[in-house]
Amino acid sequence: MTSGTEARRHPWLAWRTWRKGRPFWGGLLSTLAGAEICAIPLGPLKIMLVQGITGILSILMGLVMIMMGLSAWFAPSYRMFAGIVTVMCAAAALVLSNLGGFLLGTLLGVIGGSMVFAWQPHQPQQRPTGGPEDEPGDEPVEPLPGDPAASPAAPAIPPAAPPRVPLRKSLRKSLREVPQAPPLPPKEPQ
């Protein structure tokens, strides 16, 4: 993280840090998809394919998608739930809301929800440390030639591997050892 003064001097650095700490692009696409699906029923009647109770459903689905996109931004720990709900609303909007906002809202919703679901937080790489006495400026020091720690250690003996059996022999052996069922009794005439 950056300090407060550094963030004030470099607002783009603060913006980039905030953006990289959450599924930003997936949340943006989900929010845009919800706004597009929500705006279609509010358009002129000549453009609308379906009106009535489905118009209310369109607005509700759009609002849910907007809320899921914003929750991906401001609560990234709920990203899996937000991604699944966004994709489900986008798929439902295809049937219930003017072909999902003329297909644009459905496509944006499915892609954005998938991006939100797939996003993983960045894990900083840990550098190996030699112990508590290591400090950021320390470098490894080579031991002196007379130092007992400088003597090379005996090489480790690798564990013995089991002997390799050719595949054909082991396969033949296993086929010979397959238990056989007893023969069936002869059929009686009827």
Tell how many strands the DSSP assignment holds.
0
- Largest sheet at a glance? none
Shape: flat
Gap between N and C termini, in Å?
Answer: 90 Å
Helix % is 40-55%
Proportion of beta-strand residues: under 5%
Number of helices: 8
Structural class: mainly alpha
Low-confidence stretches: none
Provide the succession of SSEs. Answer: HHHHHHHH
Radius of gyration: 33 Å
Mean pLDDT comes to 79
In short:
The protein has 190 residues and is mostly helical. It contains eight helices and no strands. α3 packs antiparallel against α4 (53-74), α3 (24-39) runs antiparallel to α7 and α4 (53-74) runs antiparallel to α5 (79-96).
Spell out the blueprint of helices and strands.
Elements: H1 4-9, H2 11-20, H3 24-39, H4 53-74, H5 79-96, H6 98-102, H7 104-118, H8 167-176
Helix pairs in contact: 3-4, 3-5, 3-7, 4-5, 5-7
Can you give a write-up of this model?
With 190 residues, this protein is mostly helical. 54% of the residues lie in helices and 0% in strands. It is built from eight helices and no strands. Helix 3 (24-39) packs parallel to helix 5 (79-96) and helix 3 packs antiparallel against helix 7. The longest helix is centred in the middle third of the chain and has 22 residues, at 53-74. It is flat, with a radius of gyration of 33 Å. The chain starts with a helix and ends in a 14-residue tail after the last helix. The mean pLDDT is 79.
